[in-house]
Every structure is written in C-alpha cells, then in structure tokens.
C-alpha cells in the first residue's frame, strides 16, 4: 500500500466496479486504501454515492469520479464510468463548501448558501418543476447533467441526498425535503421543498431509503427503512417513519454520520469510525463481509507517516455510498 506524503489522506474501500474508489480501476477493496490521485490536493470533504464519488478541496473546487450514465459527475456522459477524479467545470466559478450524492443525483452548496443539483430527476429529486408538454400535462425531466440551482427560496447550510430524495438544512436551522423519500408507490413524490417538523439545529444525512439527524449533544436519530441493520438499532429489519434515538451509539460523542444505500458509518470525536448495515463488497471496512445492525469500530491500517514514527491515523470525515465508503484520515502525533 502506498504511503501518504501529506498529513491527511483520502481513503476508499468496498465495491469498485464503476471506478467509484478513484484508483484508476474497478477492483474491490475489503479495507481502507489510500486514493493516490487525490494526494496532491488539500481535500477537506469526500462524498460517496450509489456508484460514484466526489471530493471538495479547501479552495472550493469539486472533483467527481465513478458512474456517469445519468450525468451524476456534473457533465454529459461521454463514457459509462470514469475511474479517476476530475473537476466539475460547471461549478468552477463557485466555492463549494459541502455536497451530497444520492442514488443517481447530486447536491452541493456554496459559501453564499446557494444550493445546486444535477443527475437523475425522475422523482423530482433535483428540485426542478415539471415541464409542461404540448398536450397540457406536466412531466419531470429525467436527467440534468449540468449543475443548476435548486431550493431557490432557501439559504442553505447543508445538503443531503437519499436514493431518490433530497434534504437540506437552512442557515436558520430548519430541515426541508423533496423527491421520493420512500419506495415508489408508498408516499407521493414532490419536486418542491416541504419542511420536516420536529427537527431543529441538527446535522443531516440521507441514504437509500433512510435518514439520520445528529444533535449538538452528539446523539444520533434515525428513521426510514431498516433492512440489513442500516438504522443501527441492533436488528436487521425494523423500519420507522419518525426519528428514533440510536441508543447503541449513546456515549460515543458522535460528530458526523453518513448514510449509504444500505449501510451507515458514524464518526466519533476521537477519530474512531463505527459502521453498520449491509456488509457485502467490504463496504463496512472490517476486512470481512459481515452484515450487522450493531455499530462496530473499523480499523485504519495505513502505514505510519514517513516523517514520523509515533502517532496514529484518525478519521476526520466519513462518506457512505451504495456499496463503497470513503473517509479522510489525519495523522496525529503521539503526545508525551
């Protein structure tokens, strides 16, 4: 395994069949590996989607890679997949501070609180109003390959993207959502934002058919479909329509949660990562393909930083995709 030259490193593991690990190929990885192509950049955040990934640099540049048949990489598809990170030229003039990837759509927010969306839109998940057809009916545009503004009336602080739905947190601390938040047919889809009642001043994350909210006290709440244990309640089947506290993470001082298609990862303040949910393709990072509803700590087995012997790698950011996971790790020197 290559040794990172910076004190921070982008890690990837799980399925790589669509190039979503960013390593120039499509191999599967059962434990965290260093993404060498991003080594020269000061990456501050990473996002993993259903079959693609993105990274945000400290200067606001956005890089994407993986599956692009629906325009999820931010440009019209020339090839089915792209296995190395590339810039999103359409957002080059904006400083992106946070982003999210859903099943096949993406969201981003800039330093002015403006939200952007692109990719698949058949359930209204990009927030675009249906187009009026010649016969008077309205239909949603299926794909939006170039990033465009969404949630125009909201000043956004954070975005989250589920399988076919979107969630935003405004700078006032309110949570809004649109798209298809449950399997088609169960709940009517909407293309304009509606406010989620009962959640104030939280951090948000959205997965395939589940979502989480993190309070300022480090408590995790989850709701949605519970198959494979993705909600972290200890079982592999319970589903909940309203947010419930994840008691199995109580006391761990969680600072971030990320939701994938069928798994989740929680990051503790001390740099430990806890993963749970579906485990095939190595997406939980344990080195073995186990499925569990119990959050378990996963190891970071990177070589020590070449300029230092004493210390350890600590996770600073996590991102769950459909069948893969990303993280940013930082080398921390040992203290006497």
UniProtKB/TrEMBL annotation:
Transferase found in the keyword field: no
Keyword annotations from UniProtKB, A to Z: Repeat
Segments traversing the membrane: none
Highest taxon, organism lineage: Eukaryota
Limits of the RCC1-like domain: 10-330
A Pfam family hit: WD40_RLD
Alphabetized PROSITE patterns for the sequence: RCC1_2, RCC1_3
Descriptive protein name: Regulator of chromosome condensation3
């Amino acid at each position: 395994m290559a040794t990172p030259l910076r004190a921070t490193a982008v890690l990837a593991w799980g399925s790589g069949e669509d190039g979503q690990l960013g390593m120039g190929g499509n191999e599967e990885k059962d434990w965290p590996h260093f993404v060498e192509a991003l080594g020269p950049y000061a990456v501050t955040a990473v996002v993993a989607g259903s079959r693609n990934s993105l990274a945000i640099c400290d200067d606001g540049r956005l890089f994407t890679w993986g599956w692009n048949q629906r325009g999820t990489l931010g440009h019209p598809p020339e090839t089915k997949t792209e296995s190395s990170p590339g810039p999103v030229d359409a957002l080059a003039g904006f400083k992106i501070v946070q982003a999210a990837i859903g099943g096949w759509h993406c969201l981003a927010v800039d330093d002015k609180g403006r939200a952007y969306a692109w990719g698949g839109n058949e359930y209204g998940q990009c927030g675009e109003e249906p187009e009026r057809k010649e016969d008077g009916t309205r239909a949603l545009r299926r794909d939006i390959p170039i990033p465009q503004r969404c949630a125009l009336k909201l000043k956004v602080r954070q975005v989250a993207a589920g399988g076919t739905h979107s969630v935003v947190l405004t700078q006032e601390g309110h949570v809004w959502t649109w798209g298809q938040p449950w399997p088609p047919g169960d709940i009517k889809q909407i293309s304009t934002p509606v406010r989620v009642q009962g959640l104030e001043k939280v951090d948000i994350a959205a997965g395939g058919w589940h979502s989480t909210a993190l309070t300022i006290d480090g408590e995790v709440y989850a709701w949605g479909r519970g198959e494979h244990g993705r909600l972290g309640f200890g079982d592999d089947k319970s589903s909940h329509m309203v947010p419930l506290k994840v008691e199995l993470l109580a006391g761990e001082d969680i600072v971030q949660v990320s939701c994938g298609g069928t798994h989740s990862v929680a990051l503790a303040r001390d740099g430990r990562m806890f993963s749970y949910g579906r485990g095939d393709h190595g997406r939980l990072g344990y080195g073995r393909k186990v499925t569990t509803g119990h959050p378990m700590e996963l190891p970071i087995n990177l070589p020590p930083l070449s300029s230092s012997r004493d210390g350890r790698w600590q996770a600073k950011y996590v991102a769950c995709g459909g069948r893969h996971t990303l993280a940013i790790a930082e080398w921390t020197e040992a203290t006497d």
